[in-house]
Amino acid sequence: MEEQKIFEESIKNILQIIGEDPQREGLQKTPQRVYKAFLKLTEGYKKDPQAILKSALFASTNSEMVVVRNIEFYSLCEHHLLPIIGKAHVAYIPNGKVVGLSKIPRVVEVFARRLQIQEQMNEDIALSIMEALKPHGVGVVLEARHMCMEMRGVEKVCSTTVTSSLKGIFLEQKSRQEFFNIINSPSIKV
After folding, report:
1. 3-state secondary structure at position 58
2. Is 157 helix (H, G, I), strand (E, B) or coil?
């Protein structure tokens, strides 16, 4: 409870510094709302990606690429606390084990719900999957819009940043090319 009071008081101070009246009708509950929003937006600190992945590992003889693409995510940049909105594409080549498909988006969410830079989020997702599954390789590509570039600073609307992290066999041209062909192919209607 003490942390919540400190947080809410800080929000009231910010409102006053920018010239607002925290007692104005529309702002009276803003400190509580911001507190609840930040708890949600940063809940990734309280979740263990290894526990998530290891909770659904299954033996498999599959040795072909598994790809989960177009995983939407929302994050906050660590420099300005402004939104990052994007999609993740994650692939791995099993080495005796596969993971429940829902666990991959859950791991993306864990890292998205932390303050960071996109490049590190990319690396954290890939390393987490490598550690838990011990696959032949992992590929992660993130495509995102950064509101710190669109709303302030350079103000370039709709510019996207694409980052990748390739591990293991994904560093070899054949696997790398297959991964990029899959994530760049048109969606199959199901």
Report:
1. strand
2. coil
Per-residue pLDDT of 124-139, as tens digits, reads 999 999 999 999 999 9
**Six-digit token pair at 159?**
């510019």
Q: Which of 89, 116, 136, 146 is catalytic?
A: 146
Q: Which amino acid is at 117?
A: I
Query: How, if at all, do strands 161-168 and 83-93 pair?
Result: unpaired
β-pair partners for 86: 73, 144
Other CB atoms within 10 A of residue 14 CB: 14
Q: Which of 77, 116, 123, 136 is catalytic?
A: 77
Q: Please tell me the pTM assigned to this model.
A: 0.94
Known catalytic residue: 146?
A: yes
Cβ proximity of 93 and 64 under 8 Å: yes
